[in-house]
Amino acid sequence: MGTWHDYLKAAGTPPEWPYPIKYGEETEVETDVLVLGGGIAGCWAAISAARNGVKVALFEKGDVRRSGAGGPGCDHWCNVPANPLSRVDPDEWAIEMINALGDYSNGIGIEIQCREDYDTLLEMEQMGGKIRDDKDEFVGAEGRDPETKLMFSPRYGAKAGYGAHPDWRKPGFNPPEKRNNVVIRIWGSTFKPILKRECKKLGVQIFDRVMATSLLNENGKQGARVVGATGINGRTGEFIIARAKATIIATAGSGQLWNIDMEHGGYSYMYSRNENGDGSVMAFKAGATITMREGSHPFGIASGLKHKWYTGGGDASYENVPIVDANNVKLDLVTQGWADAGAMNSPDLLQAVRDGVESGKFELPMFGDFAGMKPEESNATWNLMLNEESTTKIMVKTMTEGGFDHTRDQIMNYSFIEMQSPPQYYDAPRGGGILHDWNLKTTLDGLYAAGTAVFSPEDHSFAASTGRYAGRKAAAYAKTVELGEVCREQIAKEKERVLAPAMRSEGIEWKELHNGLCRVMQYYVSQYKTERLYNLALEEIARIEENAVPQLYALDPHKLMRSLETLSAIESAKIIIYAQKERKLSSPKLGINRLDYPEPDEEELKKYLLMHLENDEVVFERIPIRFWGNMKEQYEAHNQDYTGVYKG
Fold this sequence. Notes:
Number of helices: 16
Structural class: alpha+beta
């Protein structure tokens, strides 16, 4: 049995590639600031850098207009305590947030978000993004301010941080006067096309369909200043060489290490299919320090069908949708957990509901009770919140066309009637990424990072505000330096690596290779961990690299891009294993359950585990958690020239 393409060739009707093939051809680019990744963070970085008076180029493996996790839309603009109706201080809220998020949160990024999120949102509005109910479609909805027409999310109002107030779990505790007004409902589906338009308006040189493949160190020396990057065009196969005074990695995080099918929870389903950890791998290979990679683990290994998160309550997009059982009994435990509907991904609440199901208190299946809501709230949830996210927007369209009426119907919730994700993964951090300082500068000169490419990142507005911030910092740096010297030997070696799968006439395709990697991670880096299992995983990956990678075959430039993503995934998997091996402990916060080291090491857990390469050898370091110091003081010391809406 051959591949589908083998069959087509044998049948004499191979598909024609609709673009000119340019394998081996090169395009050289020179710019002040180079942005790698054109998602939310990348677009904001490019816009910010251009507005600060420098020349900008942007690589994006998709089309910037809708690429990235935020491309299809977003319904919440979180952590915006600097807005005029906020009842909390931005600096104090940032502290609440890092305390709520736990020991391994990113205090630098959270402080930037809390300080500059509202400025970023207003700038989005000035560019044409919709952030207010200016057509009065949702009058009467909870949280809507009649004067500004901003739609504040009531779900996040009753608690300081995420649960610091002693009474926030009590039923009915969410009166308007208690809400903090720190999360705004938005029309995020309007944002991404506007960001691309603004990039073009500002003269950003956009390279759509170009995947960044490596960073270029000055004179080719690992650990030296970053002076540019290489890329490959996913339609033509053309090789791109960019020289830059400053480079920003905004390529997001990594997914698809335990599953490559998007239906399962082991796939990083909150993010774009294109996110394979390319940025972290490029930075690591260049000598930059990364951290929290031991916290990069599956959100339910090979189990837990992801669609349950979008089926009738239990997700942020559903806001206040109450959940009822088959007998229309409201799940009061959920009501106690969140303002109304609750988050079905809270481990304590999940266990409480599970206990209720097993005892007979609740009867399966459960439903999101749209019909039981106030009409104004049902309208806001169905026609605003769910219509501004990608997965749920499709759901709304399909169900509406099928006759669903949100004023009288319910949606089945599939929790507890299908395979469930292991509960120990719910409290874990969002994952590892690139270490940075208060300028979002990495440990390498000339290299910056933003969005979900950084360690312990957060959401859409985090990506936007950190991207905007990194853009102006990189622009300021670029004005002080000249272009660095690239190394043709480094470029030639990378070009050979990148084009190798396209130079073969037969072999295995990327899906087979990627699936083999996922099997290794499922078997040996799964729920239970031991040194033996880690070593077996590394042995299997070594065999894959020795026997399968040399056979990797790409029929066209698009499959070449997918092949390169899979090679990045292999590197990401090794990095995770190295980091988890180094952490000789068990920790629910890190998602590590080591049978050979079952106890937590309290002193070790007070430190971030750092990794970088020296002469291609992994070097580990440790720094204390909360290494960033006083957040307010540090932010202000590094941003004395910043002028925004919030003045402190």
